[in-house]
């Protein structure tokens, strides 16, 4: 492998950026994508995802730090004069939510648009090959308005990939599609990315989409990456309450660490690395609470409401403690597969799945730095 081939597809180092009000919205960001890697930037609205993508694209000039693409420095705020390679010379492809194909050009000519400057025959061959890659070879002569939303999105993907970019940048590329179509189109997109081996940085605020698409997820909060891990690691080893709460509603019980564990109404959770006396809380995902037929789990809960969602059901429960009035029941949310056999008013036994529960110290001013145990 040559040194250039081994270079990261994208490397941000110490990148800070903001807009006119002088407030940084991306803060000291370090991020590296391996060749062929798909990384999703995931986080709440306004956390800096799109700004990060625009910095990679060259649409923004960073205040500090460097950006490298495929081993080449495309931005260096500290150089004199600062380095800034414009978007069209960065070897990046774009796929945005409003993937707007040119309505006055056929599918083939839309794809050829990105291949200007190449010999005509080679460009035609490349455009047809990439249309075949996305399963649109038979539509080369069609006009955009004759295509479904999903087909248009595949043509936009072909147009972005045609010039063989070193890096593909995707900003909420599926959010304009309805739910069912979105699933199909993102599967097709992922397959094409894997087959072409292009590295991709994708912005989404949809945790399920990030879990599905990513080799790694970069979870962002207030301009920083607070955790970057594989979807599985992020699920099983969340490093902050934020990383748990972002993926689903959670049940939370506070307490104080005693003898290396946290005693809560949901049971005792080991937390050996937390000092005695530390205020802490357990975060239990809704799927941690499992209604069980064996009545002897130690936890009895009153079913408050049953909300069937089709393939799963949300149960709102009130956890009762022996000798305590029901008015003091702890409200809990459980998520169970299928349709459980219980109705509002029933008392059910609950088992608690410890793998889906996480203990964190009750943090000071900066909760994102808090460590946790699973
Ligand atoms: N052109 C701009 N001028 C001024 N402020 C901006 C500009 N673009 C973004 N911002 C601000 O920067 C912050 C980060 O915005 P950004 O679009 O990067 O976040 P995001 O995570 O992509 O959000 P969303 O999911 O809502 O698109 C926000 O506070 C936003 O208001």
Automatic annotation (TrEMBL):
PROSITE patterns for the chain: ABC_TRANSPORTER_1 (PS00211), ABC_TRANSPORTER_2 (PS50893)
Keyword flag Transport: yes
CDD domains referenced in this protein's UniProt entry, alphabetically: ABC_Carb_Solutes_like (cd03259)
GO biological process, one term: quaternary ammonium group transport
The organism's place on the tree of life at top rank: Bacteria
Keyword flag Nucleotide-binding: yes
Keywords: ATP-binding, Cell membrane, Ion transport, Iron, Iron transport, Membrane, Nucleotide-binding, Transport
GO CC terms: ATP-binding cassette (ABC) transporter complex
Residue ranges constituting the ABC transporter domain according to the UniProt record: 10-247
Pfam families with a match to the protein in the record: ABC_tran, TOBE_2
GO MF entry, a single one: ATP hydrolysis activity
UniProt protein name: Iron(III) transport system ATP-binding protein
């Amino acid at each position: 492998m040559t040194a250039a081939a081994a270079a990261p597809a994208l490397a941000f180092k110490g990148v800070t950026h903001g807009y006119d009000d002088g407030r940084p919205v991306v803060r000291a960001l370090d991020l590296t994508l391996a060749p062929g890697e798909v990384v999703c930037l995931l986080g709440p609205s306004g956390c800096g995802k799109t700004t990060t993508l625009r910095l990679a694209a060259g649409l923004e000039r960073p205040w500090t730090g460097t950006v490298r693409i495929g081993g080449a420095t495309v931005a260096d705020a500290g150089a004199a004069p600062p380095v800034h390679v414009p978007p069209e010379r960065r070897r990046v492809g774009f796929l945005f939510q409003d993937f707007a194909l040119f309505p006055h050009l056929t599918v083939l000519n839309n794809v050829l648009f990105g291949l200007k400057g190449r010999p005509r025959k080679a460009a035609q061959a490349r455009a047809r090959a990439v249309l075949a890659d996305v399963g649109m070879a038979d539509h080369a002569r069609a006009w955009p308005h004759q295509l479904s939303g999903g087909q248009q999105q595949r043509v936009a993907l072909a147009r972005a990939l045609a010039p063989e970019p070193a890096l593909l940048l995707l900003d909420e590329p599926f959010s304009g599609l309805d739910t069912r179509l979105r699933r199909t189109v993102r599967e097709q997109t992922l397959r094409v990315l894997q087959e072409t081996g292009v590295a991709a940085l994708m912005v989404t605020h949809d945790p399920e989409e990030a879990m599905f698409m990513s080799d790694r997820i970069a979870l962002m909060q207030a301009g920083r990456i607070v955790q970057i891990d594989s979807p599985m690691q992020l699920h099983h080893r969340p490093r902050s309450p934020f990383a748990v709460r972002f993926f689903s509603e959670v049940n939370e019980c506070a307490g104080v660490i005693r003898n290396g564990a946290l005693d809560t109404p949901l049971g005792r959770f080991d937390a050996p690395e937390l000092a005695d006396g530390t205020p802490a809380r357990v975060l239990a995902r809704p799927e941690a609470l499992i209604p069980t037929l064996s009545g002897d789990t130690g936890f009895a809960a009153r079913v408050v409401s049953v909300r069937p969602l089709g393939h799963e059901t949300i149960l709102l429960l009130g956890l009762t403690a022996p000798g305590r009035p029901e008015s003091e029941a702890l409200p809990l949310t459980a998520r169970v597969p299928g349709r459980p056999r219980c109705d509002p008013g029933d008392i059910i036994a609950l088992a608690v799945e410890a793998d889906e529960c996480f203990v964190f110290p009750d943090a000071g001013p900066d909760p994102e730095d808090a460590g946790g145990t699973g």
